[in-house]
Design brief:
The protein is α+β, with helices and mostly antiparallel strands and about 160 residues long. Helix content is about 25%, strand content about 35%. The chain has one domain: Gcn5-related N-acetyltransferase (GNAT) (Aminopeptidase).
């Protein structure tokens, strides 16, 4: 969905994003991960074309985004990454809404798959509220403490 309706969740394959949408996506991620966190790393990692991208506009601007990678054999685990919320849109629950929408899509499209993510260590509690559990010790990634977390597969009712 690539319409500009306010408040709508927009799931898009990379090739379906307009040039402006790609610009806004990369700008938000650069603002959060490179500028705010003073971390020089390869934000444009070549993986975006293989992901499904979730975006949320508020007031006509990109307020939050993340990307989801479909599971691959043999581990059958989905991967969520590049979860970012614009500074002016933090504190109102948008991050939790982004995660809830991502988990909804994963449950719908990838039934029975565990979900992995690499979390900044200080956000482990945030992801824990969404069912993620630590599966690694803390390690440094680009100078920032991280840990791997996994959400076990949903059990059908």
């Amino acid at each position: 969905m690539t319409d500009k309706a306010e408040g709508a969740w927009r799931w898009s394959a990379f090739e379906d994003l307009s040039g402006r949408e790609v610009h806004d996506l990369l700008r938000l991620r650069m603002d959060v991960f490179v500028v705010e966190q003073a971390c020089a790393f390869a934000e444009i990692d070549g993986k975006d074309p293989g992901a499904i991208h979730l975006r949320r506009l508020v007031g006509g601007e990109l307020a939050g985004c993340l990307r989801v990678f479909a599971p691959s054999a043999p581990d059958f685990r989905v991967r969520i990454g590049r979860i970012a919320t614009a500074a002016r849109h933090r504190g109102g629950g948008l991050g939790h809404e982004l995660m809830a929408e991502a988990l909804r899509l994963c449950a719908e499209r990838f039934q029975g798959a565990a979900i992995d993510l690499s979390a900044q260590a200080h956000l482990a509690g945030f992801y824990g509220r969404h069912g993620f559990l630590p599966v690694s010790d803390i390690y440094l990634e680009d100078g920032i403490p991280h840990l791997d977390m996994r959400r076990p597969p949903e059990t059908p009712a």
